[in-house]
Structures are given as structure tokens and as C-alpha cells.
Amino acid sequence: MRASTVRVYPKALHSRTISPLDIPEILYHIFAFIDHFTLAKAVVLVCRQWFLMNRHRVVRHELWDANFTVRRVKGIVSRMPGTVRLSWSSGTDRLQEELDWVLLRKTLEQTHAQYLWRQQEQQQQDCVKFPNKCGRQLQDVISTLPFIDGPLKELELFGVVDDCKRLASIQSALPFLTRLKLQWRKTSTFHMDQLLLSCPLLEVLYAESTEGLELPGPWIPSAIQRKGAANHPILALKSLVLKNARLLQTSLENLLYHTPLTELRLVNLLQNEWLYWPFFSDVAYNWTELYQSLKRVPHQLKSFHFSVQDQTMTDPDLKAMMFGVCPSSTEWTFRAKDLTPTLTRYLNELPNVVTYLELFWPERAHCRPDSSLHAYLCASPHLLHLKAPNTALLFDLLDLHHRVDFDYSQLYSQDDCLISVSHRSQDSQSPSKVWKCRNLRTLHLAFHNHGLSLLTSPTHSRVLFGYISRVCPQLRDLEIHIPEQTRWMTCDYHFPNMDMRLHGGFCLLTRLKHLERLCIGRVTQRMSFDPVHLNWMVASGHSSKYRAERRSIAAGWAEQIMVEKRHEDRRMERAQNERGGDESLNKMEESLEASLTRDLQLLGLVLDVKEVLDEMDEKGYRCWPVLQRVSVFNDRGVGLRPADELMRLFPPKSSKLYR
């Protein structure tokens, strides 16, 4: 996409005092600090001058889901010219999936051909109209500037069951691709050399598959390798993340010398167990040889990870990976069970603070009451991004005031041995520690409770949503997962559904004013209550009619609020008598800022939700002003616009959302 500088000096400059906003250079500097979402939704709509100055920086993102109607898919196809980022998710029906893929392939080929034709036409017009480009006037430039036009540069494919030919069938239409993300559900295969040859500008590649991903070698295209010089990067690839992959280590080591890689994460590499691999039968990984190859690479990595399925790295190897490969890194990935006291000590010994931490596990990791992850979060004020969707954190650690009575029966240890844990009474337990990562931007985490209570009560939801909204007010990306439970008598799986009604406190997350993406749960469940409990997410849900309905629902909480107040008064009085004075509150005051302490006093109470609903009635209130994608109990993790997600949750009642 070409970016041309357009100087626009209004005629009024000669008759009035010049404003800083009249000078293009100052405007360019100001616009550089504005995010792409605000540029696309507000800035380019102000005037022609602002549009011309920012049209080349607008990133148009399209979401294409297989469950969309035919009419909506046609609309997406018509908007594909000029789309920079595309997220495509397939369905579960194999026949429909094949039809969707054919439509996607034809759309990409047609869009690419149209872009090449428009570029050729533009060059011919420039040569005819402006043989001498000096002295071009603004009125001449405007007529030749296209709208927001550019090739597809970022592609995300979710749920594709690849047959080793599908990805290759669209690569010819992706020569300008710079970022590719693949998340497949079944065993999949693709050829790295074909991909790098077809996409020479590719800088970021993220690929994972639930059951396994095979990458046959060699990875370096022979046509490109012959043109490159020795020990000189000939490819653009800077970031490579592979999860659940099976590969030849020699192909990987050869790639290191031909790409300027700064990020390399090989997570849970597979060997020769329970999968059928057609391309090579014997695979082995040698950490020592890979470590020596990494040390010989002329450029240094900024982020690195290496792990093999069912193999635990020794402490010396783990220390070598952290301090020998990229000791100055601030981004780290580990397996969930690797977060041991030894690893925590290594993290504290690194020369740089950790700002990005990812904990990977192929299935839900077992959790104990003495969670090492919770302890790490309580001692890491500099952490900005935490991705641990399969790591379950014990809910009791968030319930600071013990507003939910827990019944711990028997817990599974990491060795699948039954151990019993006695629940400490509320009166004798000291206050839980609170996370120090107040500036957290990304949080992907699961929450779990052992025993009979399955986090389904409104109090559970209020504590969870209230804690996150108060402790992490700067969140941009939030995923909350509730792992499945196994019933002790029948041994079948139960998927808890958090209470999403008003008194469940989901609206407490509206305090996150910077939230851009929200995902709740990973198992599809339909809502059985009235849409008024959730339609506050869209502008139409703040009409006088729906506000009155929400006030009517909140009026029924008066008695419960009085009961909670009496209970809290008795609890505080009992705590003062038994602990002596206000010792527990003093301890919390010492560990938290005074403002956060006051905010957390209402954690888990209905009064906390009532205050948020009162705030919604204020004039000019905006719910999640920059939220772009939301997914509520949906196993398709792409996410939709809030209005589209509500229509999916309440299909028979969707018309009520806009009345």
C-alpha cells in the first residue's frame, strides 16, 4: 500500500492566525499516537484533509464465519478489496466447510487480481497525466487517490481441517502477506518451503493444531537458497511460533541461518506416539545441538521457548535456555507445570523484568490451593501480558472477604492421587494477597473450584468479574474460562455456566474502558433468560425502555442488599473481637493502595452491581467504547461485534434488541 504525503493549507491561512492543526507536519505527529481503531472509526470521518492524511494507515479488518448467512457473506466478499486483515473460521460440517473454502479461495484470487489491475491502471494514469511530478496541485491529486485500497497483509484461519492441499491452493493469492495465523482442530500438514516461496514478505507465522501439526522438510525453498549469500538472511521471517508440531530438527536449524528471526517458540513438540505421520517416521529432538546452533546464529533472539511432549527439562537445561539464548528477553513461554519455585527464582534473576508470560498446557492443568501462579502475580508489578487459558487458578484466592462458602472435599494432585484438604474457616483465615500487576493489558486465565460448588452461583460471578475489573483496570484483551468438571458418581463431564444475568455481575466488566476483546467460556451454551440482562452491551440497549426494565430488576434487590449489610456488619464485628482491633484491614491497607482497598470492600456484593447500573443511567454513558470482538460461551474463538454476538445468543428474541 502506497503512502503519499498530501499538504493541505486552507485558504483561511492568509486571513487569520494559524492554528497548530493547520500545519500538516504537526497533524502527522499527532495522528501517529492514535490507534488504528480510532483512526478508522472517528479521525478519517472528520474532514477530507484528515481522511487523505490517514487513509493509508487505516487497517480494515473483516470477520468471516461459516455460520454467517448468505447475505452477510456476500457483503463481506464485496468489501474484500482494500481489506488488510481477514479472520476466517470454518464450520463443523465437512461438506459445508469444503464449500466455504472454495468460496474463500475464489474471493482471495479475485481480490488479488483486482488489486494488481488497479495498480497497473494507476501507474499508467500517473505517466499520462503527470509526466513531471513536480508542481502537482491538491485538486489534481484528490481525483487520482483511491479510497482505502491495499492488498491483504494479515490472514487468520481458524478451525480448518487441512488436507495438505488447501493452504497451498490460496498461497498464489497471498504474495503481500506479512502475518499468518493458523489454528486447526485436527491433524494437519503444510509445507514450509512452498509457503515461504509464495509469501516472500511473510514476517510472522503462528501455527498450531489441537491433535498435531506436521511440517515436512526442507523448509528453505531451493530457488531462494541459490540466490542467497552465505550467512546472510534471504527471507523476511522474524517470528515463528509452532505448537503441537512435528518436524525435523535439521530443517529448523537450517532456517535459523536464512531468516532474521527475533522470536522462536517451539511449544510441545511431538514425536512418534499416537499419530499417523505420512512424511517421516523417526523424529527426535536434541536440545544440546539446537542450543549450539542458536549460539552460532549471528543475530540474537528476543524471545525463545523449547519443549517436547511428555519430557521435562532439567534445571541446568532450563537455566541454559533462559540465560544462554536470550537473557535480556522480557517475553517468556513455559509449560504450566514448569512454574516451579526454581523457575520463579530464575525469572527473578533475569537482568530484565518479565512483561509477557505465557503458560502452555495441552489440557487443563491441575491446580492446588497453594497456586504458584497466584503467588507470582502477587509479586510481579511489571507484568503486562499473561496468557494461560488452560491453567486453572483456584477461585478461593480471589474471594478476599470469603463471600462464598466453599466445601473442599477431595482434590486431585498432579500425580492423580487423591488428597484431602480441609477448608479453613472464614474467621481464622488471613486476607488473601492481591495481584500487583495493575497495568495488565492481556489476561487469558481459567478459574476453578473443587468440590460441590461449580462457580455457577451469582456470588461466584460477582467476585470473579469484580476482582478483575478492580485489580486490572487497564485490560485490553480478556479471556475467562471455566474448565469442565467430572462428576464423582457418574464420571461424566459437566460444563459449568456462569450466571450472566444482571445480579451475576457481568456488567462489572464495563469498568474496563480500554477493553478491545472479550471472551467468556469455550463451550457453546444458549442463554435462557431475557435479553435485557445483556443488551446493555449495545447502544440500543440504553433506551429509556430498557433502562426502566433494568431499574425494575435492581429494585428487587433491596432486601438482599439489607441482608448482606447486616451480615457484613456482624462479620466485621466478629473479626475485630477475635483478631484484636482492625488488624486484618490494616494488613490489607499495607499491601494495597487505599483506593483499591475501598473498591474491593464491595467485592461479591449485589451493591457493587447496583452502583454500576446506576452509572449506566448517567447521561453520555458509553459501554466499552473501543470493544471490537466479544465471545460469550461460544466454542468458535474468533469473536463478533457485540450486536452480532447478542443476535447469536438470543436468536428467537434478537428483534427485541433493537426495538
UniProtKB/TrEMBL annotation:
Matches recorded under InterPro entries: LRR_dom_sf
Protein name, per record: F-box domain-containing protein
Organism annotation: Linnemannia exigua
